[in-house]
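Appendix B, Record 12. Input sequence as logged:
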Amino acid sequence: MNVSETILSRGANSAAAVLHKDTVMTYAELREKVAGLASGLLARGHTKGDRIGIFSENSPFFVKAYLGIIRAGMAAVPFPTELAAETFAKMVSEAGVKEVFVSNRFLKQVRSWAEGIGVALLPESGEEDLMGDPGLPLPQMNGSRDLASLMFTSGSTGLPKGVMVTHRNIECNSRDIIAYMGLSPDDKVMVVLPFHYCFGLSLLHTHLMAGGSVVLNNEFKLFPEAMLLEMQRKECTGFAGVPSTYQILLRNSRFRQMAFPGLQWFQQAGGRLPNPCIQEILSSFPQVTYFLMYGQTEATARLSYLPPARLADKLGSIGQGLLSTKLEVLKADGSPVAPESDETGEIVAAGDNITLGYWNDAVETSKFFRNGRLYTGDIARVDADGFIFIVERERELIKSGGNRVGAKEVEDVIAEIPEIIEVAAIGMPDDLLGEAVTAFVVLTPGSKITPKDVKVHCHRRLPAFKTPAEVILLDSMPHSSSGKILKPALKAMFERRHRSAVEIPSLAVP
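Logged structural output:
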C-alpha cells in the first residue's frame, strides 16, 4: 500500500486539486507530476526509505514534491520555513536528509545554509529536469512499517523530534476524518496552516483523498481580510484554524460581519479556543457546522472530535475517540478514572493512527509510546457520558501556593473580555508561592483596558489563588510557525523584564 496513490485515487481528472493565487492544478496534472518526480528520485539513485526534505511555503510545488517523495517509497521531511540556519543543519543531520526540494522563494537562503553540510538542493526552477520515466517500477510498501514522512515537533525536551509517520497512519487517520466530517468531491477548504504542521498537512490528505480541493493562502498573518475575500471569491466550503487563527479573525477583522454563502464548516484544533470565542463564532455563523477536534503529531493528526450537535451541552470537551482510535483516561496505576468524579488521569490512545515514535530516539520514544499506545501527557477527566475534558497539559499546570492551577481556566476567563485578542497564562518563579500566575494579554487596537481591569474581572470569576498576580500587556504574542503561542518565549521575556529596568520594546508595561 502506497498512501500517495490512495490520496490521489478519487479526484476526477478535470477537477481542481490545488488552487494557489491564479493557478489551478487539476488532478490529472497533479498525478502526472507526482509520478514524474517519484521516478526522477529513483533515477537519481535514491532508494526506498531515504529521507528527502521539502523547504517551501504552501504551494503546488510543495504538494507535488511531498506526494512524489512518498510515491517513490521515501519519507518526506517538511521543514518549517522560519528555521534558523543552525536548526536546519541539526534537522538535516538528525533525519539523514540527502536532498531537499526548495521553492524559488527560499532558494537563495537555503543554498547558503546547504554549503558545507553535505545536502543537495532540488530547486523549484528545475522541476522539469527532475522528472523521470513514469514507467519505472516503484518499491513495494509495508503500510504499517514503512515511513511516509518524518514530521518534526517538540518532544518533552523542547528540541525538535522527528515523528515517524507510516503510510497506514495517514490512510487510517484521513479516512476517519473524512467519515465524521462527511467530506466529498464538492468540498473546497481554505488552508492557512503550514504543511510542515500536522494539522495543515491533514487538510491536504483528507481533501485530496475525498476528491475535493485545497485553496492555499500564505498571507493570512499579514492580511487576514484579504484571505476572507479570497474565501468568498473562490467559494470555499470550509475553513480550518488553531485558536490564534480564530482569535485574530474575531478581534482584528470584519469576519463576523462578512457573508460566506458557500461556507459549510469550520475546523478547530491545535489547542483549546476559549469558550466565549467559540460561542461568538456559533452565534455569528449559525448555519455553519463547527468541528472541534483534538490531536497530536504523534497520532498523525487527530485523536478525537466533539460532535457538533453536542457543542451546546458538552462545550469544553474534546469529545471521544475517532472511529479507529481508542481513547482512555488512566490513573498512574493504569486503571481508568471513574466517570463523573473528581478523578483525573492521562489521556492514552491506541489505533492505526498512532505513529511509530521518534526517529533515532529510543529514550524519548519510551516516555510516550508504550505497548502500542500513546501517552499524550494531557491530564483529563471523564463525564457520565464518556466525554473527555482536558484539565491541563501536565507541564502547563501552575503550582501556586500548594494549589494546582490550570492555565486554560485562567485564559478562558480573561478571554471573556471582548477587547482581548489573545491571552496566555504561565507560572513564574515566586519566593512565597513557588509559582505565581502571570497573564500576558494582547488587546484590540485602541482598547483602554488596563491590567487592573483584567485583574478585577478575574477576581469576580476566579478564586484568589487563580487570579493573576501580574498582567502584562503585549503588542503581539510570540507564535510558532503553526500559530501556537510560544509560552517558553513568554517566560524568557518575563525573566528579562525582571532582570533589567530597561523596558522591553514589545511590552507595554503599566
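The first strand starts at residue 16 and ends at 20.
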